[in-house]
Amino acid sequence: MILGILFYLNGFSQQLTRIDSLSQRPKLEYRLTVKNTFIPVSLITYGVVGLNNPKLKRWNTGIRSEVLEHINTKYRADDYFQYVPGLAVYILDDAGLKAKHSFWDRTAILSGSFVLQLAVVRVLKHTTGVMRPDSSSTTSFPSGHTAMAFTGAEFLWQEYKDHTVWIGVAGYAIAGTIGFARVINNKHWITDVFAGAGIGILSTKISYYTYERFKLKQRSRGQMHAVIVPYFNGNGMVGLAAGIQF
Question: What are phi and psi of 109, to 5 degrees?
Fold first, then answer.
């Protein structure tokens, strides 16, 4: 009888311990929900629908005609300013306005965002075969410059939204300007730009979501060592190589 009571109490104590440990687990900050992915998913959907929708195609053509008629200036700064929102995080942190994550953590997050959006953009460019407005190539959809700019803008927002919303707003304003410049330069249709913006934003959100869970798993398993280094193979190809040791 006494042994039975002791076993019961021991089991009840272990159950309470498990419940307590679950309640003390760190709260996940980055989640992928309908609410926080609605905008990027809507932008991507709009761009994809625009590939075959006659009305959206006519709108593309109409916007292109208006741009060519009223704006004759071409802007080449978009080749460089597409990187500004992402680099701004490092500049601000170095200036004393500390980002949310450490240098290596945010570099891993940004690298993941970059690789994901680049892969999606490249696949879509070579599978959709959309002709650019200036007829220079069939890699119009989606806009890679815009995707890069909005990848950095979402990164900037996530790292500094707890300081002030205006830093993120500025980043998105720059990214929006890049997308507008691609239309002005007659390199992309407006649907290309919308899709690129959505891909950039969603890629960064996914990278934050994935990295947070990766870090939690790493803490539960023990220490981990990681390194990210650039590489150049001598044939004009550059990139990043990553290694992880558990």
Answer: -65, -45
Q: Which residue has the tokens 């004009």?
A: 236
- The string of pLDDT tens digits covering residues 118-154 is 999 999 999 999 999 999 999 999 999 999 999 999 9
Q: Are 207 and 214 in contact (CB under 8 A)?
A: no
Cα–Cα distance for residue pair 145/206, rounded to 1 Å: 19
How many Cα atoms occupy the beta-carbon half-sphere of 27 within 13 Å? 1
Decide if 204 contacts 158 (C-beta within 8 A): yes
pTM (two decimals) = 0.80
Q: Residue 238: beta bridge partners?
A: 232
Residues 6+ apart with CB under 8 A from 210: 112
Please classify residue 113 by burial: count the beta carbons closer than 10 Å to its beta carbon, then call 0-12 exposed, 13-18 middle and 19+ buried: buried
C-alpha triplet 169, 39, 99: angle, nearest 5°: 40
